[in-house]
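tool=predict chain=A
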Amino acid sequence: TSTRYRLTTKRIEWETGMVSRKIDGIDVWRVRHVEYFQTFADRLAGVSRLHLYVQDGAEPEVVIRGLPASREIYDRVAAAAQVARQGTIGLVQ
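tool=predict ok
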C-alpha cells in the first residue's frame, strides 16, 4: 500500500492504495496540536513524521509518515492550523 499526502493551508488529504484508491482528509481548522517526530533511524533515512491531534471522534490522531527531514512542514501546518482556528472562532462569535 502506498500513501500520498497533500498539505494545503485549508486541508490535509491522504490517498492510499495502489490498485484501488481511497482519498480521505481533514480541514486544517480541526487540527488542535501538531508534533514532529524523527527517530534515529528516520534521521539516517532523511525522513520525519507528523502526529496531528484533531477534533474528530472517528480518527482523533493522524500520522503523516515519510516527510522530508525538515521542520518546515511542521511549522507550516502548525501555523496554518492556528490561523484557521482563529478564523473559525471569529465566525462563531
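Strands lie at 3-7, 11-16, 22-27, 31-37, 47-54, 61-68. Residues 17 and 45 are 23 Å apart (CA to CA).
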